[in-house]
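Objective 1b. Sequence-to-structure analysis of Membrane protein.
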Amino acid sequence: MVSAQKFRPFSERDVAIAQKIMDVAVLLLTARLAFTMGPSIMLLVHAGPALLLQELGHMFATILLALPLAVLLRMGPATIGATFSIDREGSFAMVSERYGSGSPQYQGVLTMYIFGTLFGTILVGLIASVTSQLHIFNPLVLAMGAGVGSGSMMAAATGAITAEHPDMANEVLAMAATSNVITGLIGVYVGVYVALPLAQKLYNMLAHDNVRPISKEVAASPSATAEKVSASSVSLPTWAIFIILVVIGIPITAIATKSFTYQLVIGYLLVAGLAAAGMALSKLTRAKVPAMVMIVTLGVIISSPISPIAKWVTAMTTPVDFLSICTVVLSIAGLTVGTKLSLLKGLGWKIIPVGLVSVAASYLLSVCVAELALGLWS
């Protein structure tokens, strides 16, 4: 609403500044996720092949089924962002770093994220309920599929499964939680190095005859002219962006958690420091290794059981509420899309069938892969 209002319309420079802040904010979110992954790293060692292979179902389902549908509906380049995964929090950083926060691909991520937030939990819960009652799949396999990377979707699915199989409630909850953590751990690397490039190639292959020139109305809209000022052309130092995000983020987290402690301040500084270190190391590789990958790798190592400071890091970063950082990121995202409402309206109803196929296929195909792997392993 703020960026779309007509009283004082956002200028091209305003949008470019918001985009530049957004590019750093999503890395802050990634850093917080990395500190969550570290303590659970041993789950990868103990996980069976079914738990690891089900990640293939999450990845290929959206790309092989939802992407062609999006191309058929002529969603344009937003197709890539909307269908390379079911687009939860980590997807913002993956697409922002590769295409920029002002790109159509990024708008696809944002649109799919909104769809998943509004309807994903209901859809996954419904599918899990139906498949549980059919007794076709092992309940533990259904629990594995519930680990799509979203806590709310996982909760909805496990609730439906345990309602049908109350005698296996503890096993189902443990399996779903483990699967969700594994999806978060390896999903970053799969998304950056496999899913996004694969989605790009498949889109280029399928969409070359379906790309339509944008209309004169869209070309003349503020969203089109705003692209003339890129985030890279704005002289806002990265260190200043970090200060802005920390100064804004700490009070928001304190309000969200209803507490303000020195651990919260130190934890937020650790999160910001990890994000800054990841960006610096990525520059040393001339961006051949994305900052997101650097951040996750460093964060996991620092907070994993092999690190001598793991317990201290975990104690300091635990008060930094993950959802409070999401609030900051999504608020900034809102400032970047107000002038692009015409492009978002162009997606309109199309995201509904694409989103339904993406979420449903991600869950069901991962369940099928896990069932097959579990059968072969047994």
